[in-house]
Amino acid sequence: MEIKSVGIIGAGQMGNGIAHVMALAGYDVLLNDISQDALDAAIARIDKNLERQVQGGKVTPSDKADAMGRIKSTLDLVELGQSDLIIEAATENEAIKQKIFDALLPHIKDSTILTSNTSSISITRLASRTDRPEKFMGFHFMNPVPVMQLVELIRGIATDQETYNSCLTVVERLGKTAASAEDFPAFIVNRILMPMINEAVYTLYEGVGNVESIDQSLKLGANHPMGPLELADFIGLDTCLAIMNVLHEGLADTKYRPCPLLTKYVEAGWLGRKTKRGFYDYRGDVPVPTR
Ligand code: CAA
C-alpha cells in the first residue's frame, strides 16, 4: 500500500522532528497532542529548524513553505484515524502508550499501519493488545530527527512483510537509512548507547572524573560528537532511566542496573536540557557542569 498521509501522536522533541522530515519528503502530516501549547511550540520549532536548513543551503525557501503547508495539527486523536501510517511518539511510558492506542483503535481504518517510535518497549507486547499485530511495528527515529541518518525498523513477532516493506519505502523516501532490528529490549542503538551513558554516570558517581573531564575524554579520546553526559541531557535523563529500566527488567542482568545518581537526577526533576538542568545547568548563557 502506498503511504500518503502520516499521523503523529505527541508533539515533543521526537514528534516535531518526525513531522518535519515527513512533511519535507512530501507526506501530508497530522500532528496530535493533548496540549495546544505543545502543538503551537512544535509548529514554531519545525519552522525554526527548517529555516536552519534553508540558511545552510540544504532546503529551498519554497520547499520549506510547501513542507509547512503540509502540516496540520489537532487536539483530537480520533482525527488521525484516516492516516495511512500512524507513528506514536508520546512519552516513553507503556501505560500512556497503551491508553493512546486503546482510544485510537476504534477509529482507524483497516489499512492503516500503526507504529511506535518507542526506544525500548516491546513491539510484540504493544502489538498484541491491538486489533492489527500484523500491521504494527517499531519506527524508531534518532534525535535530532532532521539530522540523524538512521531509522531503526523493528518487527514484532507477528509483523507481516508488506507492513515492513511499506515502512522501509517511507524511510527511503525520507532519504534516511533503515537498520532492521529484532524485537528485544532497547533494540540495537539503545542497547549499546544507554549502557555507555549509564557507565559514564557511574564514572561520575564513583568520582573517577567530573562532568567536564568525562565528556571531554569521550569527545577528544573517542571522537564522539557529544560527551556521554551532554548527550544524556540532550536525550532526557528520564528517557535514559526508562530505557535502562527496560534493559534491566527485560534482560534480568545486573550489568544493566541504572546508576543511583541517574535516578537521583530524575527524582530531582533535573531531566536535562528540556528542564534547563541535568548534568549541566542551562539557565545561563553557557552550560555549567552541575558536578
Ligand atoms: N533541525 C535541523 N537541523 C539541525 C538540527 C535540527 N533539530 N540540529 C542541528 N541541525 C543542523 C545544524 O543546522 C547544522 O547544519 P549545517 O551543517 O548545515 O550548519 C548541523 O545540524 C550541525 O549542527 P550544529 O553545528 O548546531 O552543531 P554540531 O555540529 O555540534 O552538531 C549534533 C549537533 C548533530 C546534535 C551533534 O552534536 C551530534 O551528532 N550529537 C550526537 C547526537 C546523537 O547521538 N543522537 C542520538 C541520540 S540517541 C537517540 O536519539 C535514540 C533514543 O531513542 C534515545
Question: Could you give the topology of this structure?
Answer:
Layout: E1 5-9, H1 13-24, E2 28-32, H2 36-55, H3 61-70, E3 71-74, E4 85-88, H4 94-104, E5 113-116, H5 123-128, E6 136-141, E7 150-155, H6 161-173, E8 177-182, H7 189-205, H8 211-222, H9 228-235, H10 237-251, H11 260-267, E9 280-281, E10 288-289
Parallel strand pairs: 1-2, 1-4, 2-3, 4-5, 5-6, 7-8
Antiparallel strand pairs: 6-7, 9-10
Helix pairs in contact: 1-2, 1-3, 7-9, 7-10, 10-11
Bound molecules: acetoacetyl-coenzyme A.
**Number of E strands:** 10
At the first level of CATH, the class of the largest domain is Alpha Beta
Figure out the total of helices: 11
**Percent helix among the residues?**
40-55%
Shape: globular
Bound molecules: acetoacetyl-coenzyme A
- Report the sheet with the most strands, covering strand number, pairing sense and barrel closure: 8 strands, mixed
Low-confidence blocks of residues: none
Going by CATH, the homologous superfamily of the largest domain would be: NAD(P)-binding Rossmann-like Domain
Number of domains: 2
Report mean pLDDT, rounded to a whole number.
97
The CATH architecture term of the largest domain is 3-Layer(aba) Sandwich
Strand content: 15-25%
Order of helices and strands: EHEHHEEHEHEEHEHHHHHEE
* Strands ordered across the widest β-sheet: 3-2-1-4-5-6-7-8
What is the rounded distance between the termini?
52 Å
Radius of gyration: 19 Å
Per CATH, what is the topology of the largest domain? Rossmann fold
Judged by helices, strands and strand pairing, the structural class is alpha/beta
